[in-house]
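ok so I'm stuck.
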Amino acid sequence: MRAQFVLSEIGVGLRRNLTMTFAVIVSVALSLALFGGSLLMRDQVSTMKGYWYDKVNVSIFLCNKGDAESDPKCAKGAVTAEQKKQILSDLDKMPVVEKVTYESADQAYKHYKEQFGDSPLASSLTPDQLQESYRIKLKDPEKYQVVATAFDGRDGVQSVQDQKGILDNLFGLLNGMNWAALAVMALMLVVALMLIVNTVRVSAFSRRRETGIMRLVGASSFYIQAPFIMEAAVAGVIGGAVACGMLLVGRYFMIDHGLALAQKLNLINFIGWDAVLAKLPLVLAIGLLMPAVAAFFALRKYLKV
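replied:
not stuck anymore, here's the structure
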């Protein structure tokens, strides 16, 4: 009988404040969708880091004849066979180095033509204009400075470049976008909480006579508060369910179909459905608990008789 009464009161409360309940659902859905999207963005960045950092190389570019005439670092002339042999020997002795691959000027020219064959510059470029290099795979990509310190400025070395630095700029941009999404999510969350509190206040005020009578006949505080708390929880769960739907639809249309980023950006290892599904229970749990807790604290003042 008590459960039936509580459920009937929930229905009455939701119908009386339909507009505000709808606003709560929308604000909760948007804030939780942004929250879930931020979590997925963080997972995506972590996945990309794990994928790309494992493939980044440190490149030691060697001086050629053209560099000897134009680059002060190569003022002593093009790299000699003895200098190349010494560089390779020193690399083999370094514990941070996992693998060393030599790339000749002809190989660099071939790779350039494969990647940038449509570029106007490709037609005027010749193999002797490109540099020989050593491509170094490190056991730990963070140890780039060890190689840079050992070889930067050495005779025959034009420059030491770390591909990880380029990736760090990309990941810094992605992390900045993630923080921006979290900031918007926090703002939407505040709006949702304010709407929840106001909805509970209006509902409690409109039923103050009934709650007063219930208090006089000995009803417990929890029994009086339960319908209001559950009203907020129901609205929150609906909002959480909508947020889950938005995350699923977003993953489907952005990565698999619609924009089809997985097909257009083959070099990016996108997160799978398992990562999305793993976030849904958390989104639903927050959608349930956040409004219920907000309603509970709001009712401590507005249901005092």
